[in-house]
From TrEMBL, chains A, B:
PROSITE patterns per record: HTH_LACI_2
Lineage, top ranks: Bacteria, Pseudomonadati, Acidobacteriota, Terriglobia, Terriglobales
Source organism of this protein record: Silvibacterium dinghuense
Name of the protein in question: LacI family transcriptional regulator
Domain HTH lacI-type: 1-55
One Pfam family of this chain: LacI
Length: 339, 339
DNA sequence: CTGAAAGCGCTAACAG
DNA sequence: CTGTTAGCGCTTTCAG
C-alpha cells in the first residue's frame, strides 16, 4: 500500500496526493476531496522513512537526559512527549546515567537517526561531545547556559524568584539560622541555585554562617549526610533550603531518625516539586519548576529552529526563554521555635 | 556524504561498501580493510532512513508503558534502552498515562514509524487497539498474558516464588494475622499477585481473614487508605503484604502518622523493589522483580521474532519466558510482638 | 493547477 | 568475490 494506490483510487497523480497530504494550498478543492476520501477508505498513512529520506526531515527531536531514574526526568519526558506529539514529531530519548562516555553514544544515535533538534537536559554537564551536533548544524536547546553555537536556544530558569520567595517565607516565620544543602558544583544549575540563595539571604539581611553551608549531590543519600552534619552542629540551623527535592527528602529521613521533628524543630524547603514531594511526610514545601513549561518551551524552540527557512534565522530574542519558578507551601515549614 | 564517497575513497563499488558494513562474510579481507579505513577517515555512518526504506527494517522497537511517572517504569526504560542499543536498535517510547484513547495514538505512532516489534508493558491493560499491531504482523511482547496472535512472546513473571518467600518469611517471624493490600483488579498482574498470596497462605496453613483483605490501587494514596482501614480494625493485622512498593510506602506513611511503629508493631512487605524502596524509613522488605531482566527478556524476544526468517518461525518454547522474583529482606519486617 | 519523472541513500538481485 | 543496476515510497522540480 503506497501513495500510488491512493492516486489510482482517487484518479489523480501521485504528485497531487503528495501535495494534498502536505496541504499545499494550490490543490484544486475537488481533487483534494477525492484524495482525502481515498486516504480514508484505504486507511492509508505515508511511509515516514521514505518521506524523511526524500525531504531530509525526520520529524524526530532528540532528548538527552542525565538520568531517567531521577524522578524529575520522567515528568519532563511526559511533557516533552505530549508537546512533541501534538506537533507531529517523534522523540528519541537517551539517558546518559551520569556516564560521560554514554554522551558520545547518545550524540551518535541522534546523528544516525538524523534528529532535527536536540534538547540537552543535563543541567550543565554538556561537554565537548555536543560539538558534533553543532557541527552538523542541528538546533540545540540548553537549560541555563550553553555554548554559543548557531541555532541554539537557552531556557533560563528563573531560580532567583522562587528561591527568594522561599527565603522570605522562612524569614517571615521567624527563622534566622537558615542553612543550605547545595548540589553538585559541576552542575551550573546547582551553582545558580546556590547563588540565588546567598543573594536572597543578603537581601533579607540574614546572616550567612559558613558552617551552615554544606555540600550535597542531589541524591537522597547526599541529603541525609548533609542533614546529619547540620544536626550535629553545636548550634544547628532552624531551617534548611535544599538544592533539590531529593536532597530535602533525604534530609527528612535523617531528621526523623534523629528524632528531630519537621517542621516543629526544623523547617525544610526543597526545589523542583517532583511528584513525590507531596507524598513524603510531612508534605514538602518546595520551589516548583514546571516540567511541563520546560518541556513545552524546549519543543517550541526546537520547532521554531527546525522550521525556520534557512535564510530567515530566528530572531535573537527567541534565543532566550525564561522559565518561571514558584514557591509551593506545604507542611515542612513552620514557625521558628527559637527566639 | 554518502556510501558513494566511501566507495570512491576505498576504490571499490558501493555494493562492496554495503556488504562490508553489513558484515557479509564473502567480502575479501583486503577490500574490507580498505573500506573500514575509508569509513573511519571520512567519519561516515550510514543513513538510517535510506537503509530502513530499502531493507524494510527500521531497527526500532516500540515500548508502550502505562505511566512513565510511576517509578517502576523509568527503571524498565533504562534496561530496555541498554539492551536495545547494544543490539543496534532504537527505541520508541510511549506512555499512555492510563488514558485508553492514548493507546490508539501510541499504536498509530508505532505503525507510522514502522517499528519491528512492540513490548506492551501495561500489565494487563491491553485492549483491542493492539489488534492493529497484530494485523500488521508486528512481533509483540506481553507481560503475564496476552492475545494469541502469531508472533508473540509472553513474559511470565514468577510471582508465586517471591510471594511465597515473603509469606514464609512472615510466618517464620511468628506472624499469623497477615493482611494483604491488593492492586487494581483490572490488572492481571494484580490478580496474579493476589492469587499467589492466597495460595501461599493456604500452603502455610495460615488463616485468611476476609477483613484483612483490602483493595488498593498501586498508588501511595491507595496504600495509605488501605493502611488506615487495616489499623482501625478491632484486631489489626501484625503484618501486611502489599501488591506493590508504592502501596507499601503509602502504608508506611499512614502507619507513621498513626504512631504505629514498623516493624515493631507491624511488618510490611512490598513488591517490585523500586529504587525508592531502599530509601524509605525503614528500608522496605520487598519482592524484587528485576527490571533489567524484564527489559532484557523483552528485547531478546523481540529480536528473535524480528530476525527470524519468515519461513522459520521461532520455536514454541521461545514464546514463553519466565521472569524470576526474589524476596529482598530489609528493615520493614520483624518478629511478631503478639503471642 | 496537474502530471511525469528524477532522484533521496541504500540494499540486493543479477551478471560477470 | 565484485560491480552494475533497479528500485524502496515519497517530494519536488519542470513542463504542460
Amino acid at each position: 500500500m503506497d501513495i500510488r494506490d491512493v492516486a489510482r483510487s482517487a484518479k489523480v497523480s501521485v504528485a497531487t496526493v503528495s501535495r494534498t497530504m502536505n496541504l499545499v494550498p494550490t490543490v484544486d478543492e475537488k481533487l483534494s476531496r477525492r484524495v482525502w476520501q481515498a486516504i480514508e477508505e484505504l486507511n492509508f498513512y505515508p511511509n515516514t522513512q521514505a518521506r524523511a529520506l526524500k525531504s531530509g526531515r525526520s520529524r524526530i527531536f532528540g532528548l538527552i537526559l542525565s538520568e531517567i531514574t531521577n524522578p524529575f526526568f520522567p515528568e519532563l519526558v511526559q511533557g516533552f512527549e505530549e508537546s512533541a506529539i501534538k506537533d507531529g514529531y517523534e522523540i528519541l530519548i537517551t539517558s546518559i546515567s551520569h556516564d560521560h562516555s554514554r554522551m558520545e553514544l547518545a550524540v551518535r544515535r541522534m546523528l544516525e537517526r538524523k534528529v532535527e533538534g536536540v534538547a540537552v537536559m543535563t543541567f550543565g554537564v554538556e561537554l565537548p561531545y555536543l560539538d558534533r551536533l553543532a557541527a552538523a548544524d542541528i538546533p540545540l536547546v540548553f537549560v541555563d547556559d550553553g555554548p554559543p553555537v548557531p541555532r541554539r536556544t537557552i531556557l533560563q530558569v528563573d531560580y532567583a524568584t522562587g528561591i527568594r520567595q522561599g527565603v522570605q517565607h522562612l524569614a517571615a516565620l521567624g527563622h534566622q539560622r537558615i542553612a543550605c544543602i547545595s548540589g553538585p558544583p559541576q552542575q551550573l544549575s546547582s551553582r545558580l541555585r546556590y547563588d540565588a540563595f546567598l543573594e536572597s539571604m543578603r537581601e533579607m539581611d540574614l546572616p550567612i554562617e559558613p558552617e551552615l553551608l554544606v555540600k550535597g549531590d542531589h541524591t537522597l543519600q547526599g541529603g541525609a549526610a548533609g542533614a546529619r552534619r547540620l544536626l550535629s552542629l553545636q548550634q544547628p540551623p532552624t531551617a534548611v533550603m535544599c538544592s533539590n527535592d531529593l536532597t530535602a527528602i533525604g534530609l527528612l529521613r535523617a531528621a526523623s531518625q534523629a528524632h528531630v521533628s519537621v517542621p516543629r524543630d526544623l523547617s525544610v524547603i526543597g526545589f523542583d516539586d517532583i511528584h513525590l514531594a507531596d507524598f513524603v511526610s510531612p508534605p514538602l514545601t518546595t520551589v516548583r519548576m514546571s516540567r511541563a513549561a520546560l518541556a513545552e518551551a524546549a519543543v517550541g524552540a526546537l520547532r521554531s529552529h527546525a522550521e525556520a527557512s534557512p535564510d530567515r534565522i530566528a530572531p535573537e530574542n527567541a534565543r532566550f526563554v525564561s522559565i518561571p519558578t514558584l514557591l509551593t507551601v506545604r507542611r515542612s515549614t513552620g514557625l521558628c521555635a527559637w527566639p
